[in-house]
Amino acid sequence: MRVFADYTGPVADRCDVVVVGSGPCGAVAAYELAAAGRDVVLLEEGPPFTPADFELDGARSMARTMREGGLRFTSGYVMPTMQAIALGGGSLVNSAICGRCPDFRLAEWAEAAALERTARSDLDPHYDAIAAFLGIAPTPDEVQGRRNLLFRDGCQALGWDNEPCARNVVGCRGSGECFTGCRARAKQSMDISYVPAAIRAGARVYTSVQVQRVLAAGRRAGGVEGRVAAPFTGAPGPSFRIEAKAVVLAAGVLATPLLLRRSGDLANRSKQVGENLQFHPGTSVMGVFPEPVEPVFGATQGYQSLHFLREGFKLETLWAPPGVLAVRLPGSGLELEQKLLDMRRAAVWDCIASCKRSRGRVRERGRSLQPAVHWRFHPDDARTLGRAVWALAQIFFAAGAERILPGVAGLPDELGSLEAARVLERQPPRAADLVVASTHAFGTTRMHGDPARGVVDEDLKAHDLDNLYVVDTGVFPGSPAVNPMFTGMALARRSALALAARI
Amino acid sequence: MSSIPLPLRQLSAREARFFAAAADAAFPHGTTRDGPPLPSGTEAGVVAHLDGWLELLPRRNRTLIRLLIVFFEYATWVLPAPGRGGRRRFTALAPEQRVAVFEAWSGSRLRLRRLVFASLRMLLTSSYFASPAVLRATGLAPLAFATPVVEADLLYPPVGQARDAIRWRREDLSRPPLHAPLDPHGPLHPDYTEEGASTGERARAGESAGAGARG
Fold this sequence. Notes:
The complex is a heterodimer of chains A (about 500) and B (about 220).
Chain A: E1 11-20, H1 24-35, E2 40-43, H2 58-65, E3 75-76, H3 103-113, H4 120-134, E4 137-138, H5 145-158, E5 163-164, E6 166-167, H6 194-200, E7 204-206, E8 209-217, E9 220-229, E10 236-249, H7 256-262, E11 278-288, E12 303-305, E13 313-318, H8 322-325, H9 333-342, E14 346-353, E15 359-364, E16 371-376, H10 379-398, E17 403-405, H11 418-421, H12 423-426, E18 437-442, E19 468-470, H13 485-502
Parallel strand pairs in A: 1-2, 1-10, 2-7, 3-16, 10-19
Antiparallel strand pairs in A: 4-6, 5-12, 8-9, 9-10, 11-14, 11-17, 11-18, 12-13, 13-14, 15-16
Helix pairs in contact in A: 1-6, 1-13, 4-13, 5-10
Chain B: H1 13-26, H2 46-56, H3 59-75, H4 95-106, H5 111-128, H6 132-138, H7 197-204
């Protein structure tokens, strides 16, 4: 295990497999390969965070744990898009939701991407193994808090499916701090689960190293090289070079395609590297209840409804640092301050949409190592997200909310009854009316049975190379309908086991 | 100007004046319908927080935020505030005119205009909520609890430090307690109590506030 302070000169190492990126997919791959007896090096550009490094202040936390200080935006349709930079990747600062990709969506993938071995029955053994390792379980009622249970009550009153979110959390205390790092050490983020396990199995972990190029000749990848990068500033340090018999890329949907393109347009005979970018754009609605909700207590995202999954959206509860949530509140001056005081009686729930028609791409941003992310919101998908806002409104009023703040431009700031909220049904919000954040991303190195149409095969091996694998959620041929982390990990595990058997 | 904290590390005096004016437009001193009066933006330390936060950002983002300040300071030349002297720059407007400017931006029919304003609002709101006094008054302050020591804590030093800074040993390991939900009315994180105000000030000045007490 090496941290920034350990680097006093150029680094050179040699191994069976080098894994680039320690997020959920890379960490699983590194562990499985090491547990299978392979000599593994795991590389991470970010530092490890300890509880002493966590910031409860949302702005400072994002500035330290997210690339570009958490201020990265897409072009095309402008919305914020986050990418973590930390040991454990996004798992350090996500809400730990672990959902299995539904059968119907995997069947769509199979048809669209000529897949033969990616049905739910193929993935279930991998889901099961990861669930057992991380203690994935439904969020218990005792830590839901009122803001999550009100969501359940509203769904039940409407007769809509609802369930506690399954999460990789053991011993949650309901602090609602998932997005700034779990002080309770309950969230089994990769830095405290799979990475230590990989180290125990013999893997060497180098943090604060920025991979700049994959070394390759012909159909063979030979390793990676780059520079040490100082935590937070990214100031370049000594060079490093890792030679390996196989290279596994798990740098993420936005970084992996750039790495391939910078490495001589590697694995890109299909011309699909960096294309097909998809997001789950999401928006939220706040509801104010007559009695205190005390939203500071409760699992960050404890309940969800999959009732409308086939229609293209998912509904869930949400908590985040108050300064982040309050950004969406309307008004200024004393009117705004009154709304801030109302937050004690408020719950915030959100919706994410599959958005199968919306597409984008990732490209280099000049000479920078950061991506230029372009994405367009298809009007049909925006209407789907608009319908999801109406669904949230119905849940709020069914749960007893006295009013909602829909956060939709062109509508009143507050809607005080279900009847008033029907304006959302009559005039579904357009893309331009919504305040949207990108949540999950996929597609930029897609898996496809046809080498002419995809970057990797079903084992996640690059079609164009014999020993290069991509195992992050960029390989998804489309939206998984639910949160992507668990499916990414399952695919990464299958890929790692296949690779371990080959070398 | 007394509401501007000194010394500033990133903001120029002019930029700090802009943020002070904007913070008090968004969060003025006054009385709300229910509950206690909230601190104003400048009382809550918005300018100091923004100054410390800017320091954490990559240079490109700092530059973009400086452009945002200039843009808003002079946007009234093109989109004047209502009332007499509405074309003066933002910091020269009367307080009620500044609020009116914000209302116009946030209620614009143009999405791009609303997005630009949302960027400024994000800076102001997230800094306002960094204030322990604001979090206490709104009932949104984080709760106190002990942080267990897990295996990973034996592997990693705090960011930027050498491994000899790891202070935990195997005998310190403790399991996160199962079935121990927090009490929503329980004690607050020490940095967010009134007694911990000085720690909070330290946090806004750029030091870590997040660790809390262990054990």
